[in-house]
Amino acid sequence: MAFNIADILPIIIIVLTVLTSIKGFNDMAFFDRYKFQVGAILGKSKQWDRLLTSATLHGDYMHLIFNMMTLYFFSSVIIQSLGIWQYLTIYFLSIIGGGLLSLWVHRKEYYYSAIGASGGVVGILFAAIALYPDMTLGVMFILPMKGWLFGILYLGYSIYGMHTRQGNIGHDAHLGGAAIGLILAVVFAPVILQIHTLYIGIMIIPLIVLAYLVLRKK
């Protein structure tokens, strides 16, 4: 049986994330050292590694399972359509992009902290939606719907949640990841701008609103 890195790579990421998250569940010192925290990143210690390490930690098993299931289901779409290196680039840059947006939004709140791979997972999800906007999303989502419609609703809800500080959810990290996922999908497959012009254009509108809200934040 031939070894296929494309099949095993997402599993490796998921297994490492699960193991690190479980370590964090049982070791508070480990959890505190590697979680996203504005003060630790922008303060004297300058621990910029937290932008990535925080993605390997989760708040509870439900948070972990939901993220890893979503990552598993959509990883193959990106790898088969774009390639392994493109997949890794989208995943890790979406994590970093989500972290940087969160850092900017909460830059004056040194106590603010967050954890989870959601930025990277949402980046992979939105890259898949950009490639196949007509695909139906179901199973883990409440109502089956077209990818482009889910994208618009998700972005709208996340912008509202970020603006109103609603719920214990890192909406800004999700939005940063979604934006990077969409952008990189276009960078790696520019032909989709011609094929899916309307759908991508519609999903860009909420991101323009996001940019306005972020830039006007003093």
Automatic annotation (TrEMBL):
Domain of life: Bacteria
Predominant place of localization: membrane
Membrane disposition: Multi-pass membrane protein
InterPro entries per UniProt: Peptidase_S54_rhomboid_dom (IPR022764), Rhomboid-like_sf (IPR035952), Rhomboid_protease_S54 (IPR050925)
Keywords, sorted A to Z: Hydrolase, Membrane, Transmembrane, Transmembrane helix
Transport keyword on record: no
Recorded family membership: Belongs to the peptidase S54 family.
Protein name: Peptidase S54 rhomboid domain-containing protein
